[in-house]
Write a structure and sequence with these properties.
The protein has 211 residues and is of the alpha+beta class. It contains six helices and eight strands; from the N terminus they run αββαββααββαββα. The radius of gyration is 17 Å and the shape is globular.
């Protein structure tokens, strides 16, 4: 249990600087101050990952995928749940979200700009965690569970059983929204990430013991 808490602390620490930069950019886009809760980190099973995507409305939410091309290997997925996607797009376009039932192309385009900011943030977080540069491919739209299952059937991801989830909540004066960032690393990358995090846990423990 203590290790689990250490891991969460490491994720939060890696997130702080990157998230503060994101908040500045988002505040400028929305035209008002944005507050953010500390990121929540979970490890999901393959089945839980698929259920989580579906539960948050994969067909009506905003979902994009990115291949990891440097530092690690695998797939990342960014999802704004349906309600959050509508609230966010309305805020960006100066509209009332109560009259919006689903995203149109203009709404998706607006959220894409926010998605680009958050993907940059999460890439920075991963780079800090593994201690080397991490790069992602251009985004590819995810419109259904089939699109995700097709990705999971790739040779490098076929046997993946652990998916890392970063859940982030943001608040503006009149709205609140959340995003989910899923890291689907191949087995070797997952082991690499855990090993690097364990090293950071030991380093933190050594510093604590030396005080």
């Amino acid at each position: 249990m203590k290790l689990d808490e250490w891991y969460k602390d490491i994720f939060r620490e890696a997130s702080n600087i990157a998230m503060s930069h994101a908040l500045t950019s988002l505040s400028q886009m929305i035209g008002g101050p944005i507050e953010m809760e500390p990121p929540e980190v979970k490890v999901l099973s393959r089945v839980e990952f698929l259920k989580h995507l579906t539960m948050n409305g994969i067909s009506k939410s905003f979902v994009v995928g990115f291949d990891i091309t440097e530092g690690l290997n695998g797939l990342t997925v960014l999802q704004f749940p349906t309600k959050s996607a509508i609230s966010l797009s309305a805020a960006l376009m100066g509209m009332d979200p109560s009259g919006i039932e689903e995203l149109d192309e203009m709404g998706k385009s607006a959220i894409t700009e926010v998605g680009n900011i958050l993907i940059s943030v999460y890439t920075d977080i991963l780079a800090k965690l593994v201690g080397e540069p991490v790069s992602l491919s251009p985004p590819k739209p995810i419109g259904s569970l089939y699109d995700i299952e097709k990705e999971l059937n790739r040779s490098d991801l076929r046997h993946v059983e652990k998916v890392m989830l970063f859940k982030t909540r943001f608040y503006e004066e009149n709205i609140g929204f959340e995003s989910y960032f899923y890291l689907v690393p191949d087995e070797e990358s997952f082991e690499k990430l855990v090993k690097r995090m364990e090293e950071q846990v030991r380093e933190a423990g050594g510093e604590e013991g030396g005080v």
